[in-house]
Design brief:
InterPro entries: AhpD-like, AhpD_core, CMD-like. Helix content is about 80%, strand content about 0%. The radius of gyration is 15 Å and the shape is globular. The chain is built from 5 helices and no strands.
Length: about 120
Amino acid sequence: MMNSYKQLTKDVTANLAPLHKGVPQVMKGFGDMGKAAIADGALDAKTKELIALAVGVAARCDGCIAFHTKALVKLGATEAEVHETLGVAIYMGGGPSAMYASNAVAAFNEFSALAHNAVAPASAR
C-alpha cells in the first residue's frame, strides 16, 4: 500500500510529464478519451468513476485507485457507494482484488479527510 495517495497522484502526474512532451498526441488522445468516457450520458460521471475504480482494483493499479477515488470524492460519492463498488471488484477479481480494495478504502478515506479539512474553518482544523 502507498503511504499517501495524494503524493502518489502528484508523483504520477510529474512522471507522466516527459510522455506529454515526448508523445503529445498520444497523451492528448488518452486525456480526451478519458474525458469522453467519464462525461455524463446514459450513466452519470459518478457511476462511471465507480466503474473505473472497480476496474482499477481488479487490474491492481495503485495510480488508478488514487486518481479515481480522488475524482469520486469530488463527485460526492459516499463511502457506502465506494464499498459496494469494491464488493463487485472483489467478486470479479477474487483475493487479489480484495487486497487492492483495502487500498481503495485507504485512498478514499485519505481524499475524504483532505476534502473535509479543505472546507472546514481554520479554527476547526
